[in-house]
Specification:
The protein is α/β, with parallel strands linked by helices. It folds into 3 domains: 4-57, Orthogonal Bundle (Multidrug-efflux Transporter Regulator, Chain: A, Domain 2), CATH 1.10.1660; 73-252 and 386-408, Vaccinia Virus protein VP39 (Rossmann fold, 3-Layer(aba) Sandwich), CATH 3.40.50; 256-383, DNA Methylase, Chain A, domain 2, CATH 3.90.120. The chain has helices at 7-14, 18-27, 83-91, 103-112, 163-174, 194-205, 256-260, 280-286, 300-307, 355-361, 374-383, 387-408, and strands at 4-6, 33-34, 41-44, 73-77, 94-100, 118-120, 137-140, 178-183, 208-210, 214-217, 225-226, 228-236, 330-331.
């Protein structure tokens, strides 16, 4: 069956704006196809052969993922509700410690994996000397924090008091073969790029070769969601940093329908669950928005009522009154599905996504349950690393660790 891509998805795959793709269509560089009697633009896979960066669509990676040659042990800080840990577990990695400050996240982790070593509370209180196993990997998704420069080059001790310092402290104390920091794409430009520069310098100072930061698009790794995460990978200096390769993109892009209906991703439709609801008038207004549409698809009178002062301001405000489409990946999930600026309305029913729908879009399995109120559950899921993206990274970490055993003889 020929793969079909919407204009929006093509723009996401190529990291360009939708306006750019429309210009290419008008100029003939990338001609869109149109459904009979409709102005809906779409593309078939063969239309995208001209783009070298999409070569993976036509050259799928062959073979099975490597399994660990021995048990590889990981520490994860700022673990949240387990998206990264679950993906790495699926890849064959074994955690020896997970930490988070949020009590609901820790309840979620304990309920789903009673045998995991969950340390709840202040990360600065963890004593790594008590770990009785060799640690191969340290990972963490710490929040962005600017460093105080005072016109000097910052080292490890100068970052004390930040959450990144706690990540670096764990690396220094356990000396893993590889460490992986993940964060939002915005870290690239945080504080004019200086924040990331300091992080790289600190890791170098404590004995690691830092690879160029890489932003991975979740849609390239069997995740039906347009989410991006930045990964900063560092390899211990006695090992060959060239042995680590970022995961090769999957050749297929999955849609919201793949997430919520029985598909290659899930073997059944999404289970029923609770979720938020809309107030009466908001539901009446959103019921007028077509799948894939947003506030500009409403009658002008209704636009003004719904948007209020925002109607007269600049910018596209494309997240407002936004209804998802079955045929495209979901937009990035936030910590709440019904925020006015980042609306995530179900493609068919006029309501926000339920908790289990949220979890499916993040590729959590249906038996992974979340602690706390509905609001807390949405927050945990919205903050998570998509499980399938984490699995793709985990598989490449296993491949690297298998190679490193040949180098250092630690079979």
């Amino acid at each position: 069956m020929t793969e079909i891509y919407s204009l929006n998805t093509v723009a996401d795959l190529l990291s360009v704006s939708k306006e750019t793709v429309r210009r290419w269509d008008n100029s003939g560089r990338l001609k869109a196809r149109r459904k009979p009697g409709s102005n809906y633009r779409y593309y078939q896979q063969e239309d995208l052969k001209q783009f070298d960066q999409l070569a993976y669509l036509f050259n799928p990676k062959q073979g099975q993922a490597e399994r660990p040659n021995r048990d590889y042990h990981t520490i994860e800080l700022f673990a949240g509700s387990g998206g990264m840990a679950l993906g790495w577990e699926s890849a064959g990695l074994k955690n020896v410690l997970l930490n988070d400050f949020d009590k609901y996240c820790c309840q979620t982790l304990r309920h789903n994996r009673p045998d995991w070593n969950i340390i709840e509370g202040d990360v600065s209180k963890i004593e790594y000397e008590n770990i009785d196993r060799k640690v191969d990997v340290v990972t963490g998704g710490f929040p962005c924090q600017a460093f105080s420069y005072a016109g000097k080059k910052l080292g490890f001790e100068d970052t004390r008091g930040t959450l990144f310092y706690e990540f670096a402290r764990a690396v220094k104390a356990t000396s893993p073969k590889i460490c992986v920091a993940e964060n939002v794409r915005g870290l690239l430009n945080h504080n004019g790029g200086k924040t990331l520069e300091v992080m790289q310098q600190v890791l170098q100072d404590i004995g690691y070769s830092v690879l160029p930061p890489r932003v991975l698009k979740a849609i390239n790794y069997r995740v039906p969601q347009k989410r991006e995460r930045l990964f900063l990978v560092a390899i211990r200096n006695d090992l060959n940093s060239d042995d680590f390769v970022f995961p090769y993109p999957h050749h297929k892009t999955y849609s919201l329908k793949d997430a919520l209906k029985a598909s290659e991703l899930f073997d059944c439709d999404v289970p029923l669950s609770g979720g938020q609801t809309y107030p009466k008038r908001k539901k009446e207004i959103l019921s007028m928005v077509p799948p894939g549409g947003y506030w500009r698809d409403l009658p002008v009178k209704i636009q003004k009522e719904y948007m209020k002062k925002s109607f007269y301001l600049g910018g596209g405000k494309t997240g407002m009154a936004r209804r998802m489409s079955w045929d495209e990946p979901s937009l990035t999930l936030t910590c709440a599905p019904a925020q006015k600026q980042t609306e995530r309305c179900h493609p068919e029913e006029t309501r926000p996504f339920t908790v289990r729908e949220y979890a499916r879009i993040q590729t959590f399995p249906d038996d992974w349950t979340f602690a706390g109120s509905t609001t807390q559950q949405y927050k945990q899921i919205g903050n998570a690393v998509p499980v399938n993206l984490a699995k793709a990274m985990g598989e490449e970490i296993v491949r690297f660790l298998n190679k490193s055993q040949i180098t250092d003889g630690t079979f």
